[in-house]
Amino acid sequence: MKPARLLADYGMVLVLALLCVLFSVLTFSDQSPTGEAAAKQVSDTLREQFGKTPRVLIATRDQPDDAVYATALQTLLAGSAPDARPAPVVRGEPKDAREALQRLAASGERLDAIACTQATGAWLVFNSLKADFPNLGEPRIVTPRSYRWPNFLKAENLLNIANQIAVIAIVAIGMSMVIITGGIDLSVGSLLALSSVLTARFIRDFAGGTGASASGMLLACLAAILLCGTVGAFSGAMITRFAIPPFIVTLAMMLVGSGLAYILAKGQSIYQIPDSFVWLGRGADVLNIPNAVLLMAVLYGLAHILMSRMKLGRHLYAVGGNSEAARLSGVPVKRVLLFAYIASAALAGLGGVIMASQLKSGSPTYGGMYELYVIAAVVVGGTSLSGGEGRMFGTLAGAFTIAVIQNGMNLTNVESYTQKVVLGLVILGAVLVDKARNTRSA
Amino acid sequence: MTETPPLLQMRGIVKSFPGVKALRGVDLELHTGEVLALLGENGAGKSTLMRILGGAHRADEGDILINGKPSPFSSPQDSRAAGVAVIYQEFNLVPGLTAVENIFLGRETTRGGLIDQRTERARAAALFQRLGAEIDLDTHCRRLTTAQQQLVEIAKALAFDARILVMDEPSAALTVHEVERLFEIIRELRTQGISIIYISHRLDEVFEITDRVAVLRDGLSVGGRPTADITRAQMIQLMVGRELTDEFPKRTTPPGPVRLEVAGLRRGSAVRDVSFNVRRGEILAFTGLVGAGRTETMRLLFGADPRDAGEIRLDGALLDIRSPSDAIASGIGFLTEDRKTQGLVLAHSVRENFGLPNLDRLSNKGFVRMSAESEEFAGYIAQLQIKVPGQEQRAGNLSGGNQQKVVLAKWLARNCEILIFDEPTRGIDVGAKFEIYLLMNALVAAGKSIIMISSELPEVLGMADRILVMRAGCITGEIADARSATQEQVMRLAIA
Known about the structure:
By secondary structure, chain A is mainly α. Chain A has helices at residues 3-26, 35-50, 64-78, 94-106, 129-132, 155-180, 188-205, 214-242, 246-264, 279-282, 291-309, 311-321, 323-328, 333-359, 370-380, 392-411, 416-441; strands at 28-31, 56-60, 89-91, 113-116, 140-142, 147-150.
């Protein structure tokens, strides 16, 4: 493919990249490493200055991150001599540090250094060590060096963005297919809620609640997705058999789906789910990448192949581009439409399962307004609402654009009401840019 | 020199689209009360030139002068202000509005903020009278016939005192009678001092109605002279750039045994008991007036519409055709009359359009074999001499002739036994027409059968082996030897 064509197909990627650059610049700030990264750095410094076995006191606050730091540093310092006594650790406040120092001084030990975190390094107690504890020698204060890096570009933030948009992005795959056929599916938000409730109820009622087995949970998820797919089949049948506009059919199913979710959940959330159920939504088994994000990536890969390489994908485009011409060319138009609505509903069902897993509960309130975010992702991704055009990776870029804007505004402390205004305008702007680009290339 | 300047003068008009230079310095003159034929093959730039005149496109270079004065033509409003009305092939009427509402759309007569219906109706009635049209003012445009819609378009133009009327293929969708009626109106308008630019591929009409001929070829003006001073052969030569000896190529192979048998085909009042058969290596023509049920019959045969009754047999075996895909699987192909709405997905590439009916053949376990697809298509591009910059070109950006060739390619690749050509050369220039005729001959020579629907009698007489004439949903006559038939003979059966 030529670069021009690539840009036309995935121009939104460029916009996304620019947004990332913008937020990176805006969130550029001092970073102090914590946890293991900090421990590694400090240990290297200590060894450089004081040889293989420095005598060190580790000063930390009583926080999880600091605990990781202390443990890691102890292990690293022990290093070549695992039998040696581990470096003493202070956990708490300056007075604890003072007591520890006094104890050490009383026992006649000498210290090369005090390994601190960014916060403990500023404790006043360490300011006049020579005067207060002359017996200890001349311990140096060593803190992890800070560096400049954008908050936005931190790995954990990027993964966070991906994880937060995974559900919307997955549902947007089905929505893209439907919109490419020239239709729309307003029911996905409600189906997402319905699916979360169904999953939770199946686990509670049939799989044994909090004691459910993995296979029981898997069956519950599959059943929920299947039922959502059935709802999609029903919508598709109404659209193809009775020629009711998709907007109307799926608007009706949006109400039906939401109502059913409330009825099945009796208006409440369902929590009786085993802890292990969060594996899909919160787990991260491979390279620290959340499972939901991996699933999303796999699904996008498959959807891209379907749309660009397979007969069915061609048919979806053809039906959206000119359904009569497609029909007269032998395309089974009704079956193709049916597939699109089933796929959209089933993927909404999968979205519901992931959400139930992320939140470890099912609730009829999940997925509120999601249909609009999903449609926004598709449209921002360059798919035309009139059908026949659009690319899967465009949709993915669209979903990420929305996520990046939201995340970026969170990081730059834009308040949530303003965020909505900005997001709305950005969606409009993205579509305008897309239109301008298309008129130029047409 | 004090000669009065021409009413309209277009000088050195240049217009480029991405990848194509559509117009390369075109000059055109139009005098008051003149009917000018604008001729040229498809893709020669006629439509683009007229779109510039209508303000739909903006010229990159060149001037447009009205009565010798340069005028802006950058929007449809400018064009209208200059007294130009363009009636495009696809009418610009809102189907859900009445004739009166359409005529005054955008220029409503108001009184105190409300539409002055009485004045509008009176003016519309006067316009229709001037055109000799009998159209109910309150009928929604979607209920009007094509000819009536055309009259509404003309009335719309006259309503704002247009002095220049551009008509793009006005006779394409009209019956013989309606065309005569249209010519009467054009002559009447000419005496009223209105100038008309008449675009048509039907040279007979050009001789009958126009005063002067201007020919475009490849975006350049290649000749203009009084219609009386030019012969048909010269016209064709100017358009094509070479001489065509015969409009209809000859065939020698006689038809073989019967292959397709259709018996008792029926659907409502559109198709009432139609039976016929087609032989191997035969071109069977269906003719008749528009609305006689020809296309409707073929849609039933192809499974595009459900039939009430009727049996279809191919080589003696009964076919159960319920959808176009059934028909295609049985070896029947249908080149529809309207390429834009039924034949092509305009926004998609020509390659994807080509592949559409052939995907089952060109795919493996659901995966499209892209390289096989483009290789095969490349073969057809070469064979049919389709003028495309590449396989990824959007079908909508091609000229009519090339679009038709893409449609042809997609059906040829299917290797259908029976091919239905519905108005195969409508809106196609002379050169491309001849190529399509040659191709039809090659197909029947290879033992395929062709059913051709056509309203152009010379084409029917020139190409068919056998002619069936339809009227009001029934076959009203058969002419077994098409080569020796006359136009009068056919018309008698069609009208009766």
